[in-house]
Amino acid sequence: MSGVAVHHVVEGPAGGAPVVLSGSLGSDLRMWEPQARALTAAGYRVVRYDHRGHGDSPVPPGPYTLGDLGADVIALLDRLNVETAHMVGLSLGGMVGMWLGEHAPQRIRTLSLCCTSAALGPAQSWAERAATVRAQGMRAITEAVVRRWFTPAWRAAHPDRIRWFEDMVAATPARGYAACCTAIQHMDIAGRLPDITAPTLVMSGAEDPATPPEHGRRIAAGIAGARFEIVSPGAHLATAESADAVSDLILGHLKENS
Predict the structure, then answer these.
(1) Is 164 helix (H, G, I), strand (E, B) or coil?
(2) What would the pLDDT profile of 57-113 be if each residue is shown by its tens digit?
(3) Is the pLDDT of residue 16 over 70?
(4) pTM higher than the cut 0.90
(5) Whole-angstrom Cα distance, residue 124 to residue 126?
(6) Which of 120, 136, 185, 242 is 20 to 30 A distant from 12 in Cα terms?
(7) Is the model's pLDDT at 2 over the cut of 80?
(8) What is the pLDDT at residue 258?
(9) From edge to edge, which strands make up the β-sheet containing 227-231?
(10) Number of helices (H) and strands (E), helices first, in the chain?
(11) What sign has the CA pseudo-torsion 242, 208, 167, 172?
């Protein structure tokens, strides 16, 4: 298993503790702008990146596994000469974070997991979504994806931002998106949650239809000492809808475990 050279940006003071931000399926590294501002202002060295098959990262032939996506993060840390980092992940990024906590614990200082799941079925739905984008392109699912990302009230109040996020999803390479759907379809991380030793914060959006709070509760119950928090308002991209609350929770977790 070897990682590809994913697109990334590094921000913040050179001497700051490194924090890796890993995004959702269908997003790119811009989704983390509020948290990047908060973390760099607090003195952290922030690394944002695009998953393989997303944004400006390469799109190698699929299908992908969580192991492939985790290997990309390890390769990125190696390229940056970072021995250990705080890992923050939302949705697919949280799944990658859990995989790293299970398979490469020596590289992870802490885990902050937002709006994610360790077992997100049914598997057939992911196969069908992958088939849809391969056949019809990303525009076939863009509106439905962004609808799940935000509460109705936030969508109504921020039409310009909704269009911005829809353009982000639509710009995702269909082949890369479909290959990452397969990684979720076949992921196997729930059974090894007790192996995770990194101090872990789990956050769920109160109104998240994709990974409801019970998914976060199950993750927190499986990891010794994990802390669980519910963010409201918040659907699947609580990092945008309740940006300050999520940033404050992450910062508190990092400071408690520095």
Answers:
(1) helix
(2) 999 999 999 999 999 999 999 999 999 999 999 999 999 999 999 999 999 999 999
(3) yes
(4) yes
(5) 5
(6) 242
(7) no
(8) 84
(9) 8-11, 45-49, 18-22, 85-90, 108-114, 200-205, 227-231
(10) 11, 7
(11) positive
